Amino acid sequence: MPKPFGKSFWQSVRAPFVAVKCRICYIPVPAGPRAAAAAALTFRASAGASAHYTVNVDAAGLVKLWRPGRDVAVYPTPIVRGRTYHLKVVASGASIRVWLDHGASPVINTVDGSYAAACSG
Question: What is the CATH number of domain 14-120?
Answer without folding.
Answer: 2.60.120.560
